[in-house]
Amino acid sequence: MKDAIKRRGLLKTSLAGVAVAATAAPLAVHAQSPAVTWRMQALWDGGTTPQKYEERFVARVAELTGGRFRINLFAAGQIVPAAQAFDAVRGGAFEMMKTFDGYEAGKIPSFAFTSTIPFGFAESDEYEAWFYERGGLDLVRQAYAPAGLHYIAPTVYGQEPLHSKVPIRKIADLAGKKGRFVGLASTVMGAMGVSVTPLPTGEVYSALDKGVVDMADRGDLTANFEAGLAEVAKFVIVPGFHQPTTATAYVANRGAHERLPAEYKAALGVAAREVSGALRQHILVNDAAVLGKYAAKGCEVIRFNPADVAAARPKAMEAWRTATKGDALATRILDSQVAFMKELGLLA
């Protein structure tokens, strides 16, 4: 009980910040502020729930700037293939992307820790508090800067389940299986004996359907149902120990961001924080209902024993350290997160 009270107290500031952002009035825009139009490619397919929240994001930016800063939104792959978005934004082909930092963790070790922490933060508010209250935003901006990119803000939500073609009932069942994971989850699941294949989000359905992988991480429960995973993977494993909390990211070309008026930069941050809270709450409300939809499609929902997950955490923590690859900034980020998890009572 004391640990729970302590954790709630530590998160009060973060939750208060969300409330302030959610009620923010339109920002004061100077009469001489220029009209600006950007292009943004998202992670999601058109018509899906996450993409609808990106539509809310660009609409809110326009609202906060009196319509003078507009962002034309594109679905995943509409401008460039998803795997090319990082380099395309860096090169100025378009100004902004919604991304998952873990895709680039092989090149930039810090990104392993700014998208998800397998076996780590148990609640999305805890992870978001690290970004906003424990210096996480500044650290991840340092990681992006050498690439000529500016990290605006995360969208933080809860677990992503594991979808499998074969029953996985305990951690030991992972060994010898083929799985799609990216970022830090790749390293951690590899340590659990999984043969890992990193694939773009858009290729997960096909990989499961064709048997390229036995199991896969993709997105939240609702997004995965909308993507048809119930048709190709009949086992849904929760909680998502491999991705208990998730942070996708709004990232801009640094030069384009620096040229923006201050109020436009502020609008990006406010809109991003609002969408983070709104999507998280939407997912929270819908998770229970969508599990029933999986069952109606003939899927079995498997719930892991918390004690089994806890017993595997030490091995996961060793993999965290391995994933830093000795990089100084990645090590600082991990040390910061571990210290916060200890404050929250998640780690001894």
Topology:
Layout: H1 2-22, E1 36-41, H2 49-64, E2 69-74, H3 85-90, E3 96-99, H4 124-133, H5 136-144, E4 149-157, E5 162-164, E6 178-180, H6 184-191, E7 195-196, H7 204-209, E8 215-216, H8 221-226, H9 229-232, E9 235-238, E10 246-253, H10 254-258, H11 262-296, E11 300-303, H12 306-323, H13 328-343
Parallel strand pairs: 1-2, 1-3, 6-7, 6-8, 9-11
Antiparallel strand pairs: 3-10, 4-10, 5-8, 5-9
Helix pairs in contact: 1-4, 1-11, 2-11, 5-13, 6-12
Task: Characterise the protein shown here.
This protein has 348 residues and is an alpha/beta fold. Helix content is 46%, strand content 15%. It is built from 13 helices and eleven strands. The chain has helices spanning 2-22, 49-64, 85-90, 124-133, 136-144, 184-191, 204-209, 221-226, 229-232, 254-258, 262-296, 306-323, 328-343; strands spanning 36-41, 69-74, 96-99, 149-157, 162-164, 178-180, 195-196, 215-216, 235-238, 246-253, 300-303. The strands form two sheets. Strands 7-6-8-5-9-11 form a six-stranded mixed β-sheet, with helices on both faces. Strands 2-1-3-10-4 form a five-stranded mixed β-sheet. α2 links the parallel β1 and β2. The longest helix has 35 residues, at 262-296. The two termini are 16 Å apart. The relative contact order is 0.18.
